[in-house]
Specification:
The structure is a homodimer.
Chain A lengths: L5 H11 L6 H13 L2 H17 L1 E2 L6 E2 L5 H4 L4 E8 L2 H10 L4 E5 L17 H8 L5 E4 L5 H14 L5 E4 L15 H9 L5
Parallel strand pairs in A: 3-4, 3-5, 5-6
Antiparallel strand pairs in A: 1-2
């Protein structure tokens, strides 16, 4: 790309390494960054560096945080006997946004995927089992409803059941506002199986 | 967004200021950046800062470059008597990628848009007129085929014609591989008007 100066090509190249950013988008972003006020470029750049340097796993639930323990694990208002297991911090945020869940979380940072060589040792499963040695009433498995998420849910349920702790899985069914016509068969069957008394 | 630590929220906020990056994408990018190797984050961050600091307009054609004069204006191999006027550096790159154009460029950094308050003084038009005082044979107007691009082309042609320099406009027509059925009427008419002898 020698029709751009090396500084621009460099920036485009670095930006295009980001997920979901193709060559065209990287180009557009690069030119936007060059046209931004210098303070804003510095803010963006330093927020990257500082997030990378200061963010690590919460010692308790393994979510990403800048303290030793995340605000949720540190809160006395939360029910520490109820643990919701999620695949990543974004999933945790999805439930936190609602603001109705009162328990704590455990973030696996992935799901088992034998085809991709991701086994139980590659996710934060050991850390969950250590937590279960404490005083826990229920483990709610909220991994994704994908092949990997389901396999992970099965494995966790197998590991937790012998301890006598209650293990639950969030429900499958028709999304609220969803049109039955467009919903796949497996979901429709699960919705039927999971029907509740009115 | 207090379900993320402030460092993460900060990064998400800065990223979502970029064009075409919504809240969800910013979130995804932020978590990706946190998971990247530290050297890569530093490379990305410093390439932004250095591009912002070192990139400025070429003294001759106004494209973005890190030298005083861009490589194209500095090249003895190019025909400096033929100037292609484009709206921005990406348009210049679009023609440079083909590698067939032998003249030089002039980058306007915009197009006149009276509705948005962008007048002739807000684009690099004065700089073009100064260049025309030198030895120039032809000005090829390659602004976009949008309302603003067309208005800019009209204005430039009006300003250049009295100098006796040849003024041309890149052709409108059916894109190669285009299906007539799906092409708008104005383009079809322009293609007919611009038909060439076989």
């Amino acid at each position: 790309m020698d029709y751009y100066s090396s500084q621009i090509s460099n920036l485009i190249e670095e930006l295009s390494r980001l997920p979901g950013i193709g060559a065209k988008t990287a180009q557009r972003l690069a030119f936007h960054i060059i046209s931004m006020p210098e303070e804003q470029v510095e803010r963006l750049s330093s927020s990257m560096i500082s997030a990378k340097k200061n963010i690590h796993y919460c010692k308790c639930c393994c979510t990403l945080t800048d303290g030793e323990i995340c605000p949720i694990c540190a809160s006395a208002k939360r029910n520490h006997k109820m643990i919701m297991v999620v695949e990543n911090t974004r999933d945790l945020a999805a439930y936190e946004k609602i603001g109705k869940y009162e328990g704590v979380y455990h973030v696996l940072h992935g799901a088992i995927a034998p085809m991709l060589g991701i086994g139980p040792a590659d996710i934060k499963l050991k850390e969950l089992l250590v937590r279960l040695e404490g005083d826990v009433d229920e483990v709610i498995i909220a991994t994704n409803s994908s092949l990997e998420g389901e396999a992970t849910a099965m494995l966790i349920s197998k590991l937790v059941k012998p301890t006598g702790i209650r293990v639950t899985r969030i429900a499958n069914g028709v999304p609220v506002g969803g049109d039955l016509e467009y919903i796949d068969e497996v979901t429709l069957l699960r919705a039927l199986d999971g029907r509740i008394e009115l």
